[in-house]
């Protein structure tokens, strides 16, 4: 191959990669705001264990199916606890649905969780998850925004999966 062909192929590859990155939302800014919120009323399952456990995916898919099938009026939600007492590679989650309205009928393997809150620092991310900032970066920026407003945050995040390309992450204030 001559030099010119390699250069042209390289430029085409760079343009294609940049176009895909932009299409997936890689250039979209994460919006950080302070929100007035009501208590978070959730149903779902608690999980504590290895971060690569198949149980996480099973619980996530079950909740996602309930939301997509409109069995429950709500948003697919994951509460990620920053529990420093866990062993390395261990995680603690509540995986389920943030209800838009109350319900008395929940699956037998589900439990209720109410998180009292009046304010939350929120990150709104419109991008495919493959080009989103890291969770550590998002949490660091949430804490920085809370510091600017003199808010003390609880030590967990509430991830609300609105759609394939819209994720809202809240950190409720104490």
CATH superfamily placement:
Regulatory factor, effector binding domain
Give the rounded overall mean pLDDT: 86
First and last CA, distance: 63 Å
Low-pLDDT windows of residues: none
Helix content: 25-40%
Strand arrangement within the widest β-sheet reads 1-6-8-7-3-4-2-5
Major β-sheet profile = 8 strands, antiparallel
The gross shape turns out to be globular
In N-to-C order, the SSE pattern is HEEHEEEEHEE
- The count of β-strands is 8
The CATH architecture classification is Alpha-Beta Barrel
Query: How much of the residues is beta strand, in percent?
Result: 35-45%
Please, how many helices? Answer: 3
How many structural domains in the coordinates?
A: 1
What is the CATH third-level topology name? Multidrug-efflux Transporter 1 Regulator Bmrr, Chain A
Q: Round the Cα radius of gyration to an integer and report it.
A: 19 Å
Overall description:
The chain has one domain (about 30-170): Regulatory factor, effector binding domain (Multidrug-efflux Transporter 1 Regulator Bmrr, Chain A), CATH 3.20.80. It is about 30% helix and about 35% strand. The N and C termini lie far apart (about 65 Å). With about 170 residues, the protein is α+β, with helices and mostly antiparallel strands. Strands 1-6-8-7-3-4-2-5 form an eight-stranded antiparallel sheet, covered by helices on one side. The model has no long low-confidence stretch (mean pLDDT about 85). A hairpin with a 2-residue loop joins strand 7 (about 155-165) and strand 8. It has helices at about 5-25, 55-70, 135-150, and strands at about 30-35, 40-50, 75-80, 90-100, 110-115, 120-125, 155-165, 165-170.
């Amino acid at each position: 191959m001559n030099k010119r062909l390699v250069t042209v192929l390289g430029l085409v590859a760079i343009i294609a990669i940049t176009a895909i990155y932009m299409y997936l939302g890689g250039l979209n800014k994460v919006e950080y705001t302070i929100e007035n919120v009501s208590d978070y009323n959730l149903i779902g399952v608690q999980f504590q264990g290895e971060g690569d456990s198949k149980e996480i995916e099973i619980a996530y898919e079950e909740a996602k199916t309930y939301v997509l099938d409109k069995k429950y009026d709500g948003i697919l939600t994951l509460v990620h606890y920053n529990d420093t007492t866990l062993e390395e590679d261990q995680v603690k989650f509540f995986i389920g649905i943030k209800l838009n309205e109350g319900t008395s009928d929940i699956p037998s393997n589900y439990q209720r969780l109410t998180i009292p809150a009046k304010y939350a620092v929120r990150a709104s991310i419109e991008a495919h998850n493959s080009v989103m900032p890291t969770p550590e970066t998002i949490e660091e920026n949430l804490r920085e925004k809370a510091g600017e407003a003199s808010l003390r945050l609880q030590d967990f995040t509430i991830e609300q999966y609105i759609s394939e390309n819209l994720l809202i992450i809240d950190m409720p204030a104490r």
